[in-house]
């Protein structure tokens, strides 16, 4: 009954969903591309068996890289179908995987659309990245005997409480999963409480993502052109954070410090540019030119270059954490040996953040004033920055290995050894 009500509401809300696509297409016209796929209508596909991997957007698409490579190595006769939900995720998939995978949008969670998806692709098994739980999708997979494994799974206490309010709908969905590879024991416990079975604690796949050497080299080349100028990177900033970050940067009272500001979502690049212009800040865009001696802020309006930005910076503040948004992941920064500052709100990546702080790869600040103070302290103490870089490298290295464990779990659950 709960799923029936959910489905009815979804059908009734479909016009609003389409209006939301139109609204988002004002800034990203690609939201209107491949519209039929969102309702389960796909073009022809080559006649090879399918392994289906779902990564909702950019972060999950990049995090899936080591696992997708491992799946391709283990099942070379299969096609990897990579589904997502956003144009930016699809663009990231093209950048990372090229034509080595087939990309499509996952259909909306409507029974007819889900049925068309499974009828068209008929995957041998499915892999969902992180926490993508769709009741009708999982019911459809179960009906067609397609094992679905939730991998790199994480679930904050806040999200678990939200799911708990919908237990009649959500518990059967979690219970239908063939297995779950959780990032941490806390994640695993919360998932089990919600009905997931076969939960194993595997670790975080993002530790196995190797930063592209050419991007690190690009960052170092940028840095060389700055002739020793200090660089503060604000990585993956979220809406409402940029004014706070600018306040902290001004509080340094150091005109030599270049602030590199990289918003999390590309549709906000123009808005952040308008903010900088309105505040009278001298800035240039990455898409237009490199910073010079007169540039106060370099606006990182590019995709796929975060490793280069980390390679450029003396240290990074990782966004989503000054406001109660849960924070963004600091693992890529650590892999690039970049010291990290985070704000008080990191519940989306609680364990990784706590572990990084514990070994000295990251530091937490309570507010804007503390951010300015800690930034000034680090820039005045190169020995501290060097120690944090070393700790970040060690932290990243010691947490690798989740890919092999996840692959082993998939093989056991599906009964398919590959090769």
Question: What labels describe this entry?
Answer:
globular, seven-stranded parallel beta sheet, Rossmann fold, alpha/beta, 2 domains, 419 residues
Q: Segments where pLDDT lies below 50 for 5+ residues? A: none
Largest sheet: 7 strands, parallel
Shape: globular
Beta-strand portion reads 5-15%
- The CATH homology group name of the largest domain: 3-Deoxy-D-manno-octulosonic-acid transferase, N-terminal domain
Overall SS class: alpha/beta
Write down the overall mean pLDDT: 94
| Percent of residues in helices | 40-55%
The total count of helices amounts to 18
Total domain units: 2
Could you tell me the CATH topology label of the largest domain.
Rossmann fold
Strand order of the main beta sheet, please?
3-2-1-4-5-6-7
CATH architecture of the largest domain: 3-Layer(aba) Sandwich
C-alpha termini separation:
43 Å
In CATH's first tier, which class of the largest domain applies? Alpha Beta
Report the strand count.
14
Tell me the Rg in angstroms.
22 Å
Describe the structure.
42% of the residues are buried. The mean pLDDT is 94. The strands form 2 sheets. The protein has a 7-stranded parallel β-sheet with strand order 3-2-1-4-5-6-7, sandwiched between helices. A 7-stranded parallel β-sheet has the order 10-11-9-8-12-13-14, with helices on both faces. It has 18 helices and 14 strands. It starts with a helix and ends in a 5-residue tail after the last helix. The protein is globular, with a radius of gyration of 22 Å. α5 (111-121) crosses α6 (135-143). The chain folds into 2 domains: 2-203 and 401-414, 3-Deoxy-D-manno-octulosonic-acid transferase, N-terminal domain (Rossmann fold); 213-398, Glycogen Phosphorylase B (Rossmann fold, 3-Layer(aba) Sandwich), CATH 3.40.50. With 419 residues, the chain is of the alpha/beta class. The protein is 46% helix and 15% strand.
